[in-house]
Design a protein that fits this description.
This protein is mainly α. It contains eight helices and three strands, in the order H-H-E-H-H-E-E-H-H-H-H. The protein has two domains: 77 residues, Arc Repressor Mutant, subunit A (Orthogonal Bundle); 30 residues, no CATH class.
Length: 123
């Protein structure tokens, strides 16, 4: 991945709604979800959702396809993996400081396995 593409992807993901949207589509799998389902699950107005979806499409993080009258959105796993590789290419294997980035399970010793409880406490 080129530096500009990484910056575009990180910029797109730096907004809370877009990050939630991308995470939803990653978990939905390659078949993706219709825009209406996305709006319902995230509680986002259709006009706002369109803005956020277009931003992620431009960054190459998601794809859009038409199925009859519906627009289906899906995560672009190649771009996601490219971004992760770009972010870790100069770290993994260099020294002990990089180990948490390369081995996420080693980074936390609190026993929490899911981000949701930590996010709930912050709000």
């Amino acid at each position: 991945m080129e530096k500009k593409a990484a910056l575009d992807a990180l910029s797109a993901l730096s907004q809370e709604t877009r990050l939630d949207l991308f995470r939803l589509l990653v978990t939905a799998g390659p078949e993706g979800l219709p825009a209406g389902v996305i709006a319902e699950r995230l509680g986002v107005l259709p006009s706002s959702l369109t803005f956020h979806l277009n931003h992620l499409v431009r960054a190459g993080l998601i794809t859009q396809r038409r199925l009859s009258r519906q627009l289906i959105y899906a995560a672009e796993y190649g771009t996601m993996n490219g971004l992760l590789a770009y972010l870790t290419e100069n770290c993994c294997g260099r020294d002990a400081l990089c180990n948490p980035a390369c081995n996420p399970s080693d980074a936390f010793t609190t026993g929490e396995s899911d981000e949701a409880p930590a996010r709930a406490r912050q709000r």
